[in-house]
């Protein structure tokens, strides 16, 4: 076995491809005429140097380093914030507080004594951050040019597809989108999985031991995105037509349309959902065939006047999926079990087991709906099983102050994602807005979303199921034809059911040709977006590293005067003048 002599030089770092040969030959010495150290000594020295360098880099790296406000001092000292941070970490880890060590109990007592002071400073800190947001809200318009161009091109392609629907619509009916029957509870349950298709992917989350920036190169080209990423709308999906023949279904919709109906956070939002009511031939249990009426809800039409902020959210959603999910190629059997397009049949109805007065009891109508959804990927568990994963970005625009809370829109959509994807888990990938750097990956469950919705917005996402049942009930009463479920700032808590109008001389309510004309639709500048508060309980990596409490100012440096035994704030070091011509 011949090994190049230069690899044994003590000042040359060992290469990874020769490490195995080095270990096998560790008893051999460099030729005597070279007068080098023994190989065994070289291996120890070089390995230690490489390991130390890696540890040093990992130790120094802090994803999304937070720069604390310097013009306001915290009411807590550095040591007090460190103690309170440990208690906050115990709360977030759902630690059993009945089984604490002596030190942990002491820390908890300190936290309870300072709790009123912490809450008071949280309020001051939030006010400080809000004022800072008003000065720097233009950061929402900061978006990389190539990402903006990519997302804008995709949006323009979607505008072109609007012409496949009829152009003119008139008013037919209205539907209330507010749930006004709190006594009756809606019951939703999955019936069965009837079909799977697509390619399975596995999710690989970043370790964040070094800087992780989402790569633009992983995005598919416009041509490939159109061919592979875009599925046909549910009303034109051939798989669904075949499934309707042998399954008891009333309504068909995609996950995108479902989340649009569930989201009621903005009563002034403009959206249109195409609705197609038509009959298909079905096979009865006795073998006979007959025609049955079905309601198809296609994906909502694209926005007319999107903002750069909305473009950024859309683009980062695609970036997160393409960067952290890979094609799963372990076996053909796994591909069949974990495909990324799923067709499930669900049932929604009023729960007749509730004790309510007969006069308030509504008709117990059960509706079966076929839901088509895509899975971002699968992750392996400790027991060898896999579970579906939802990857969503959380773009941070005030990272120097902390992490933002989840908005009401985000929470209701994430709640819908988890409820209608059984046994799934959601990860929020928190990103720095202008650099697309991954700051943290947050694990989110359905219970956590319910808690956040109630704590931050006094909102119960499950109540939206009542509005969903109302919409399905109204649409099933329609005759066959083309409709449009229309909502704007004027309709508020209602949505208008528009029907196709062939005679253009009638009272036209919506003209798709004019509403979605490529010359009139444009990107809107929207700098006055509502401020999203900072989550004063979310611990970023920088908080854990510097032992600082989130949602609080930087603690003032305190030094002790040994002569008087009192403490005072440290103003800064003064430069010392040497008494002699030489430094000691």
UniProtKB/TrEMBL annotation:
<dbReference type="GO" id="GO:0045945">
    <property type="term" value="P:positive regulation of transcription by RNA polymerase III"/>
</dbReference>
<dbReference type="GO" id="GO:0042795">
    <property type="term" value="P:snRNA transcription by RNA polymerase II"/>
</dbReference>
<dbReference type="InterPro" id="IPR019535">
    <property type="entry name" value="ICE2_C"/>
</dbReference>
<dbReference type="GO" id="GO:0008023">
    <property type="term" value="C:transcription elongation factor complex"/>
</dbReference>
<feature type="domain" description="Little elongation complex subunit 2 C-terminal">
    <location>
        <begin position="332"/>
        <end position="555"/>
    </location>
</feature>
<dbReference type="GO" id="GO:0042796">
    <property type="term" value="P:snRNA transcription by RNA polymerase III"/>
</dbReference>
<dbReference type="Pfam" id="PF10505">
    <property type="entry name" value="NARG2_C"/>
</dbReference>
<protein>
    <recommendedName>
        <fullName>Little elongation complex subunit 2 C-terminal domain-containing protein</fullName>
    </recommendedName>
</protein>
